[in-house]
Write a structure and sequence with these properties.
The complex is a heterodimer of chains A (239) and B (119). Chain A is an all-alpha fold. Chain A has 13 helices and no strands. The chains are: A mainly alpha (239), B mainly alpha (119).
Chain lengths: 239, 119
């Protein structure tokens, strides 16, 4: 006697195996589309995989916590992958060292633009103050951004969502902006994408080339540290 | 692969410990990256295995953001109330950041610029 399918589903959805497997399947599917589009940024694999999974979980009324019990094994690898960014950084270090001045200028200008323009536009269109403050650290990698939001009076969980959307927006749109500006140097393209859209932008940069990836990784790390130090001071002096 | 993963985890652990210990505003893995970078400088580069493993991991860096990205579904109601100012702010500010960063760098670039791959 075989049990009804709903019983099997209840059993499977309670085990971490399912969350892990659907994450990998959705990503494989998304990456297949991405590759077959010629790595077109509009077919961003994070965007496609997240959309598939959110639809799937919503349709099957599965809780995020249940899903994450399996997906956490993938999530965990973010730590070691961040450490691994040291290797392309080392390989590209000669070029980084020769560009210290542009890197420093891009970092400071980009970091301030990211925070202040987000606040200004949100204020212009009537967002509440906590929302404006939650937007300020949106270009910084998630753990730093949530810490900053908490410190300046934003809502950390809202910031976490805004960080992800910012990452996807940058990864999808950067090519068109750089092409329109006729900027071709992978160091500039990589660094700007890392400042504007942290790890998700860095992931996109690595798929294009190692030099862009290394500069994106550098930008992500530097912008995280600078925003954490600078933003509370800047907002304090404006208030 | 296992030896390389172990090295990465050891540096992450070191980063987490130092970040906690000194109460730094930087997450442990970012400090771990810095420590590994310093170690590579002293060692004169990564071994073959570390190079290969990290390249594999970084090729699919986007996969690692998927579980957190799916978390959007839990907080969607927060975005729903003020979706228009949020969307405008994110789009305009992300574009502005890309443009300003790239312009600032371009202005200060040494004259003989290299070219090649383009994201």
């Amino acid at each position: 006697m075989t049990p009804p399918i709903s019983e099997i589903w209840v059993y499977l959805s309670a085990s971490p195996l399912l969350g892990l497997t659907i994450t990998l399947l959705a990503y494989q599917g998304a990456f297949w589309l991405y590759r077959h589009s010629g790595m077109n940024p509009l077919a961003n694999p994070v965007l496609i995989a997240v959309t598939i999974l959110v639809l799937l979980l919503t349709l099957t009324a599965t809780r995020y916590e249940t899903y994450f019990a399996g997906a956490q094994f993938v999530h965990f690898l973010l730590g070691p992958a961040t450490v691994a960014l040291a290797i392309p950084l080392y390989t590209q270090f000669r070029r980084v060292r020769s560009l210290l001045l542009p890197v420093f200028a891009g970092l400071v200008a980009g970091s301030l633009t990211a925070a202040l323009s987000a606040i200004a536009v949100a204020r212009l269109f009537g967002a509440s103050l906590p929302t404006q403050l939650s937007l300020a650290p949106k270009s910084v990698t998630t753990p730093i951004a949530m810490g900053i939001a908490e410190r300046i009076g934003g809502i950390p969980s809202l910031t976490a969502v805004l960080v992800i959307i910012t990452g996807i927006l940058g990864a999808v749109g950067a090519r068109y902006i750089f092409d329109a500006m006729r900027i071709r140097d992978p160091a500039i393209r990589g660094f700007a994408i890392g400042v504007a859209s942290h790890g998700i932008g860095t992931a996109r940069a690595f798929q294009v080339g190692e030099q862009a990836g290394a500069f994106a990784a550098l930008a992500m790390g530097l912008n995280g540290a600078l925003t954490a130090l600078l933003l509370p001071l800047v907002l304090g002096s404006l208030a | 692969m296992i030896a390389a993963l172990t090295q990465l985890l050891v540096f992450q652990l070191l980063g987490e410990a130092v970040a906690r210990w000194l109460a730094l505003p930087v997450p442990g893995p970012v400090l771990g990256m810095l420590f590994l970078f310093l170690a590579l400088t002293m060692r004169g580069g990564p071994g073959h295995e570390l190079q290969a493993t990290s390249q594999n991991l970084l090729q699919h860096l986007s996969l690692l953001f998927v579980p957190a990205g799916v978390g959007i579904m839990v907080h969607f109601h927060r975005v729903a109330d003020e979706w228009l100012p949020l969307l405008l702010s994110l789009v305009i500010s992300t574009a502005a950041t890309l443009i300003v960063t790239a312009l600032a760098m371009k202005l200060l670039m040494p004259t003989k610029a290299a070219s090649g791959e383009a994201p």
